[in-house]
Write a structure and sequence with these properties.
437 residues, Glycosyltransferase, Immunoglobulin-like, 5-stranded mixed β-sheet, 22 strands, 27% helix
């Protein structure tokens, strides 16, 4: 993550982060501003000027006389304070550090806790940069003693919030906090009954992701960050910084083949400085050599309009730095319209249906897949598939479905591919069918 000493393979990482990270364009709290700042920096963007908006200055100016960052009514918490400080540190923003540290330490209880196990782990990450100060070192020591007292004697993990089993979220937060202040989560000091915090976390690792009884995306993200910090022996919050060097080169990513008329593709740009480190690109100007073939909006979204070729160019505003990419638009072969259910209800049949028209003279396969997911576990628990070869110029409807269980929370996703072997997407975006309100 981030873009310190990055090269080559990090382009794919940045592309993935940029596609997944969504900026909150109307933040109403310090924590929301901090999240925007961290996400933008991690995805190679400039939080001082993202789509013309500065997310850093409002957070910096929200610091009050107590040193706390208060924008919304729910900001008076240690975790909000910790993330605000880390976000501002990552963006090299000036603020009253002494007051901020005083404000953060005001949340520490006599036990050493900053509100709980998770909160204490998170606050350690914010304090770690200043651990050479006597009063901060003392606060860190009290926090470590608190975490020791909360570590389960049997499992080596943390059982919190009145639960009966270990908590992977707590394990992740504590691992990151310990690493940040120079502690080894696998050391004898953090071992109970021959088990440590990492052992506790890894109980929730399932093949290629982390998962507990109710969720997998968030715990996978947090688990990955904890493992990354352990692997490097450093806190990513202290390592990732806004690189303010001037860009000298752009590379456009996001296109790897022919697109068909009516389709869209989201291009992203990676900028490099003279040392080949990734830096924010600044404000980009997008253009197309053939707007009637493929048009680009100001966010790099390209819409294919008719068969032909066009050159898409991204330029840094007020500079001569640019990059171009040739786009080939092919004739559209199949028209698709979704006409099935858009909500589901427990105990009722759910039916997905698509109207398909083969625009060519050749035979074209089409396969409709409908999958039922348990919202609590995220697992697919049922699916149905129907396939058909469309003759030239043929129009038809494909439908598939099944009965939704009487109890539980579920959602359905519908996909349209050419066939199960090649899995070429026909319907650009899957249909997400959720419970009726």
């Amino acid at each position: 993550m981030g873009y310190l000493h990055t090269s080559g393979s990090h382009e794919d990482d940045l592309k993935t982060i940029q596609l997944k990270f969504k900026v909150n364009e109307s933040p109403e709290s310090a924590s929301e501003y901090a999240k925007n700042i961290m996400g933008l920096i991690a995805s190679g963007q400039n939080p001082y000027s993202y789509k013309g908006i500065d997310y850093v200055t409002p957070l910096r100016l929200s610091q009050n006389a107590e040193g706390k960052f208060i924008i919304g009514k729910n900001d008076n918490y240690p975790t909000t304070m910790a993330y605000s400080m880390m976000a501002l540190d990552m963006s090299n923003a000036p603020y009253d550090t002494d007051k901020a540290l005083s404000g953060l330490m005001s949340y520490q209880a006599g036990t050493g806790s900053f509100g709980g196990v998770d909160e204490t782990g998170m606050v350690l990450s914010a304090l770690s940069k200043y651990k050479n100060r006597t009063e901060i070192d003392a606060a860190i020591g009290k926090a470590l003693n608190y975490l020791h007292s909360e570590q389960d004697e049997s499992t080596g993990g943390f059982i919190v919030w009145g639960s009966e089993s270990e908590n992977p979220y707590s394990a992740s937060a504590v691992i990151q906090g310990l690493v940040s202040v120079g502690e080894n989560p696998e050391s004898e000091e953090w071992t109970k009954n021959d088990k440590n915090i990492l052992d506790s976390l890894m109980k929730y690792f399932k093949g290629d992701h982390f998962e507990d009884s109710s969720e997998k995306d968030m715990i996978t993200e947090q688990g990955f960050m904890a493992l990354a910090d352990m692997y490097r022996g450093k806190s990513m919050f202290n390592e990732i910084r806004l690189n303010t060097a001037m860009p000298v080169k752009l590379v456009i990513n996001g296109y790897d083949g022919v697109i068909r008329e009516g389709d869209t593709v989201n291009l992203n740009v990676v900028a490099y400085d003279k040392d080949n480190n990734i830096v924010p690109a600044g404000e980009l100007i997008w253009s197309s050599s053939q707007e009637d073939v493929a048009a680009a909006d100001n966010q790099g979204k390209v819409t294919a309009k008719k068969p032909g070729e066009a050159v898409i160019t991204a330029s840094i505003k007020d500079t001569e730095i640019s990059a171009s990419l040739a786009i080939t638009v092919a004739q559209k072969e199949i028209n698709v319209e979704y006409i099935g259910d858009i909500t589901i209800k427990n105990g009722k049949q759910v039916t997905t249906k698509v109207a398909i028209e083969n625009l060519t003279e050749k035979i074209s396969p089409a396969t409709l897949i409908i999958a039922l997911y348990d919202n609590n576990s995220g697992r697919m628990i049922n699916y149905s598939v129907i396939s058909k070869d469309l003759a030239g110029k043929e129009k038809l409807e494909l439908s598939a479905g099944f009965l939704v269980p009487d109890t539980g929370s579920y959602s359905v996703k519908a996909f349209l591919w050419d066939d199960l072997e090649n899995q070429n997407v026909i319907m650009n975006e899957y249909v997400d069918i959720k419970p009726a309100a």
